[in-house]
Design brief:
By secondary structure, the chain is mostly helical. It contains 3 helices and no strands. The longest helix is centred in the N-terminal third of the chain and has 25 residues. The protein is flat and about 45 Å long.
Length: 73
């Protein structure tokens, strides 16, 4: 049930990226690379989550990464 929704979301995200491509070309180089990096990271996480046989909660994975970077009491 959820995978068709995820594939629909991916299709719509690709359409938005293609529509915004002209505007991204006009942005500064660092903004373009950051945008492309975030898009690639999001797509990688999306593929990783949808192709697993077990459930993976991305928020828990991100919290583990953030806990290493932030000095918490």
């Amino acid at each position: 049930m959820i995978k068709p929704l995820l594939f629909t979301y991916l299709g719509m995200a690709i359409v938005v990226i293609l529509m915004d491509f002209r505007h991204m070309k006009q942005a500064a180089a660092i903004n373009r690379w950051i945008s492309y990096g975030l898009i690639a990271l999001g797509t990688g996480i999306w593929f990783y989550v949808t192709h697993l046989s077990k459930t993976l909660y991305v928020t828990i994975w991100i919290s583990h990464v953030i806990q290493r970077l932030l000095p918490l009491p």
